[in-house]
Amino acid sequence: MKSYAVGELKSHFSEVLEYVKKGEKVGILFGKNKRTIAMIVPINQKSDAKRKIGLLDGKVKITFEKNFSITEEEFLNI
């Protein structure tokens, strides 16, 4: 993995993107100690990973009364 300080990253950004296009990760160094604070990583365009839809999926339970009903117009507020 290559790493660049912020100033270097600015001046070599096209080069960094070429590394990333080839599948490499690039670290971003910051501060006097040049600690890695972030990474630029390639995205996987063919990801088959399933993601959960909804931020609260599995964390909340919604129930409706048996006599609950709403028309499409009421739902759409028209």
Written description of the protein model:
The chain is of the alpha+beta class and 78 residues long. It has one domain: YefM-like fold (3-Layer(aba) Sandwich). The protein has 3 helices and 3 strands. The protein has helices at residues 6-11, 13-21, 72-76, and strands spanning 2-5, 26-30, 35-40. The protein has a 3-stranded mixed sheet. Strand 2 (26-30) and strand 3 (35-40) form a beta hairpin.
* Percentage of residues in strands: 15-25%
- Low-confidence blocks of residues: none
Q: Span between N and C termini? A: 56 Å
Helix content: 25-40%
The CATH first-level class comes to Alpha Beta
Q: What name goes with the CATH superfamily?
A: YefM-like domain
What is the overall silhouette? elongated
Q: Which second-level CATH architecture applies?
A: 3-Layer(aba) Sandwich
Organism: Leptospira ellinghausenii
Protein name: Prevent-host-death family protein
Family: Belongs to the phD/YefM antitoxin family.
